[in-house]
Amino acid sequence: MNRAKGSSFDWTVKGASDAPAASDFLQLSADGVPRGGLSDWLVGEIRRAIADGRLPTGSRLPATRVLAADLKVSRGVVTESYRRLVEDGHVVGRGRAGTVVATTPLNGAHSTAATVTAAGPPAPSGLFDVPPGADVFDAFRAAHARIDLSPGLPDLAAFPRTAWLRAERAVLAELAASDLGYGDPRGTLALRRAVAGWLRVNRGITAEPEHLIIVAGTAQALGLVAQVLRAEGTDRLAVEDPCSLGTRQHLHSWGLATPPVPVDSEGVRVDALRATGARAVLLTPAHQFPTGVVLGGERRRELVRWAGEGGLIVEDDYDAEHRYDRAPVAALGAMAPEHVCYAGSVSKLLAPALRVGWLLAPARYREALTDAKRFADLGNAALPQLVLARLMESGAFERQLRLLRRRHRARRDAMIAAIRAHLPYARVHGAAAGLHLMVTLPPGVSDTTLASRALAHGVKTQPLSWHTQRPDRPGLVLGYAAATPTAIAEGIALVASLLTSAP
């Protein structure tokens, strides 16, 4: 057996004589397994080995042909099993580097929800004990958890490393020396062209490359818009309620007040928006955060009428691509381009660490926004832009989206099933799209206390009250993109046990 010493295994096969026998790899034998159930059996065995630590993170699985020969099964059985493990996030395929375990094993000794009591230890550093400050998300991300159900966290194990490396090599091979100097603060022409094409096909927006600004994610897009609005005398940007706490904090840092506008089953209430007197509003119309509501057709028309009277819509196209039960709705920016500042990014499609997004604004704001971007950082790093443009043009970006949709839908379904089984009294919101669900809980529950106890027992989630400005129902915002179905089911069961046993 070819086993490396230390915390991981290396099952790399260098030749037929070095191939590990089936009895070496997890002591597996397919004897007695019905032929129609071989894939289910192999997936189950590997999942158990990951969960109990026999296959730690970084372990390399045998090549499909080798394992198939050793187990005396068809190669298709092993290939299908590996595909299922990749889709549920347990392993990741890395081309010639093989198939590698990607998840951290769950500690089975602490996984039985029935053993958890309501009086658990407090969350680290009193994270939920005081009103959230400016550094709350830094502390939240740093808090350790066995199961991370954070909203807005994508499946980072699914990052297309092989495709990215291939595109990067191709870009470097063609890159002129002059391309490594200072460039257009709006971003490289190659990426602006690629994004313009992507928006036209996927979001119904017609945009010229020269009208786009490449930014460091939606956060920077909002910061640039905030600066320009402040410069013209606007000191309030209305927001949906509930609305992302992080977004509100970001706008406050730029000196903008955020009057709340209630959201109902059709989206933001335009009558309530008018009542605020605000002349600009920030919306997440494709998949409202955190409720998951899609802005209805009549509300869209009302908003366009409101904007035509002198208002400005700032559209954060949050989660627009992650739809499972129907095609994405068109962007507001496609309906009223002269009244909408449109922002999008690849943070949920690839990775937040890339810090790449785009901003498309009405003509009257473009020069001021370009100046704000220039004086912020002289423009995003060029190389990641060129690599992303290559991925978009080659079709690899679209293939990644299709893979993520399949994986995320399975994880969403696992979370809904777990909520129905363990939290039947909770109401689920926003199931048709996105990377999270919102659940509302019975009156009298303290969602911050529940989130605190859950974190103390190794499950990370966010209380709904973090994201509301007006009194509202208690609830949780539960992300599912970065957790396996097994972890999701365990995490929901644990949360439910804490809630049902609360004093």
Characterize this entry briefly.
The protein is of the alpha/beta class and 503 residues long. It is built from 16 helices and 16 strands. The longest helix is centred in the C-terminal third of the chain and has 27 residues, at 396-422.
List keywords for this structure.
503 residues; alpha/beta; 16 helices; eight-stranded mixed beta sheet; four-stranded antiparallel beta sheet; disordered N terminus
What do these coordinates show?
With about 500 residues, this protein is of the alpha/beta class. It has 16 helices and 16 strands. β9 (about 310-315), α11 and β10 form a beta-alpha-beta unit. The chain starts with about 35 loop residues before the first helix and ends with a helix. Mean pLDDT is about 85; it is low at about 1-25 and about 105-125.
Mean pLDDT: 87
Strand content: 5-15%
Radius of gyration: 24 Å
Number of strands: 16
- The best one-word shape is globular
Low-confidence stretches: 1-23, 104-123
Number of helical stretches of at least 4 residues: 16
Distance between the termini: 53 Å
How much helical structure, as a percent, in the residues? 25-40%
Q: How would you sum up the major sheet?
A: 8 strands, mixed
Category by helix and strand content: alpha/beta
Order of strands in the sheet with most strands = 4-11-10-9-8-5-6-7
